[in-house]
């Protein structure tokens, strides 16, 4: 058995999304900007995809701007908030210490351009406190960006509450909802955010396509100059096959959301209960405030990389945090933001499930992980030091 449990890194493409994409590739090769019939048919598909996406998110079609993925949407949102603020002389931005690097690195860039950024603590449970946001707001604050679901530990953030208190002070709010859309209900009006990022490949659409929701009345900054596509806010011929597939995937996941959330939550609970029985292990992030599918554990005395390689050999595809940091030896910035010491943050395991996973697969994971953890501890000098009392156990 081989279990794919790395859905927070990317998800398999849904059959309906692939079907929609293939039909578009084969038959609708037109350029939506062309005036002839072939072009206008493509334009109709584009408009329909935009309307379908908007309907799933409680937005208006005019408020959906297609992008080349979640990272681009994040960059566009932050630049938009920063530039709108700068026009009013406001140059302070607020985010959290455990955002995705698309947000953190875009913030670093804005710091170089003269903006000041506050990185909020996320506490040990991996949840931002609205009162911390309130305390960080100043007269100079232009934008607050807080993710809806953290990609490494799966914790939910109180974005609606944060948006409410920011709007009372006239501050714009963006949320990176890349791990939320298609996994929990996301309604832009209920959240009352000004901007929201999403990415197709995190909910069973292909890679390289995403969207920015930008509330009516706000104009997104242009990242890519060119033609008049995306209401003049993003130049370049649209990725129509990707867009059509993304809309199909979102419709599909939205229709089945309630049932799939229950199903995935039950699998996750079984997974947590099983992994908790491993001695000197800890679940990272709040037990209750979490999205259905994501679980992140630390196991003392072992190193994440070797754990992943052995799990792969035994038929479990997992991750040690984000796909972006798992290639490096640095501990995850997310786990460090929770206040975990470096030696613990190195031994983390993220398992992320969707409704494609089965109970038999969870059983397989629960058979394999304890075995691999025991083996790695048996050959670990760090574990020996812990067991012989030379070093104190931290978990
Ligand atoms: C994956 C991810 C992104 C980046 O999306 P891409 O489409 O891969 O660029 C941004 N934010 C979060 C929270 C993510 O999980």
Task: Itemize the secondary structure elements and their pairings.
Elements: E1 3-4, H1 15-27, H2 37-57, E2 64-67, H3 70-87, E3 92-96, H4 101-112, E4 116-120, H5 130-136, E5 141-145, H6 159-168, E6 172-176, H7 188-191, E7 195-199, E8 210-214, H8 229-232, H9 240-255, H10 257-275, E9 281-283, E10 294-299, H11 304-313, E11 316-317, H12 333-337, H13 342-345, E12 348-352, H14 359-378, H15 381-387
Parallel strand pairs: 1-11, 3-4, 3-5, 5-6, 6-7
Antiparallel strand pairs: 2-8, 7-8, 9-10, 10-12
The structure holds pyridoxal-5'-phosphate.
Pyridoxal-5'-phosphate binds next to helix 3.
Describe the structure.
α1 (15-27) runs antiparallel to α9 (240-255) and α11 (304-313) crosses α14 (359-378). The strands form three sheets. The protein has a seven-stranded mixed sheet, sandwiched between helices. The chain has a three-stranded antiparallel sheet with strand order 9-10-12. A two-stranded parallel ribbon has the order 1-11. The protein is built from 15 helices and twelve strands. The protein is of the alpha/beta class. It is globular. β3, α4 and β4 (116-120) form a beta-alpha-beta unit. It starts with a strand and ends in an 8-residue tail after the last helix. The chain has helices at 15-27, 37-57, 70-87, 101-112, 130-136, 159-168, 188-191, 229-232, 240-255, 257-275, 304-313, 333-337, 342-345, 359-378, 381-387, and strands spanning 3-4, 64-67, 92-96, 116-120, 141-145, 172-176, 195-199, 210-214, 281-283, 294-299, 316-317, 348-352. Helices cover 43% and strands 13% of the residues. The site of pyridoxal-5'-phosphate has 15 residues, from α3. Pyridoxal-5'-phosphate binds at residues 69-71, 74, 100, 102, 147, 151, 176, 178-179, 199, 201-202, 210. It is an enzyme of class 2 (transferase). It comes from Candidatus Avoscillospira stercorigallinarum. Keywords: Iron, Iron-sulfur, Metal-binding, Pyridoxal phosphate, Transferase.
């Amino acid at each position: 058995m081989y279990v794919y449990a790395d859905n927070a890194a990317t998800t398999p493409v849904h059959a309906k999304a692939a079907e929609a994409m293939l039909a578009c590739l084969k038959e609708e090769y037109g350029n939506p900007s062309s005036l002839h019939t072939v072009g206008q048919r493509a334009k109709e598909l584009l408009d329909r995809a935009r309307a379908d996406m908007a309907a799933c998110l409680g937005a208006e079609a005019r408020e959906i701007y297609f992008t080349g993925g979640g990272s681009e949407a994040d960059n566009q949102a932050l630049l938009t908030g920063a530039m709108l603020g700068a026009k009013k002389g406001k140059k302070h931005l607020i985010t959290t210490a455990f955002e995705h690097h698309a947000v953190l690195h875009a913030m670093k860039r804005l710091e170089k351009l003269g903006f000041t950024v506050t990185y909020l603590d996320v506490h040990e449970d991996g949840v931002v406190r609205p009162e911390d946001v309130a305390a960080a707001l100043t007269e100079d604050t232009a934008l607050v960006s807080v993710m809806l679901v953290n990609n490494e530990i799966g914790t939910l953030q109180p974005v609606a509450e944060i948006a409410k208190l920011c709007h009372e002070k006239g501050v714009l709010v963006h949320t990176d909802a890349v791990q939320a859309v298609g996994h929990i209900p996301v309604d832009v009006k209920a959240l009352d955010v000004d901007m929201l990022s999403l990415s197709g490949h995190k909910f069973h659409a292909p890679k390289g396509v995403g969207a920015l929701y930008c509330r009516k009345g706000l104009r997104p900054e242009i990242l890519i100059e060119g033609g008049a596509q995306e209401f003049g806010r993003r130049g370049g011929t649209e990725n129509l096959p990707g867009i059509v597939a993304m809309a199909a995937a979102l419709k599909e996941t939205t229709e089945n959301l309630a049932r799939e959330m229950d199903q995935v939550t039950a699998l996750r609970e079984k997974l947590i209960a099983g992994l908790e029985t491993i001695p000197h292990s800890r679940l990272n992030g709040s037990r209750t405030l979490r999205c259905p599918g994501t679980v992140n554990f630390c196991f003392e005395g072992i190193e994440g990389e070797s754990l992943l390689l052995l799990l792969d050999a035994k038929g479990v595809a997992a991750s040690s945090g984000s796909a972006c940091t798992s290639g490096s030896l640095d501990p995850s910035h997310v786990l460090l933001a929770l206040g975990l010491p470096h030696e613990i943050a190195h031994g983390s395991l993220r398992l992320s499930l969707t409704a494609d996973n089965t109970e038999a697969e969870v059983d397989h994971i629960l058979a394999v992980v304890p075995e691999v953890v025991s083996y790695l501890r048996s050959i670990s000098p760090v574990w020996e030091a812990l067991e012989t009392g030379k070093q104190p156990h931290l978990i």
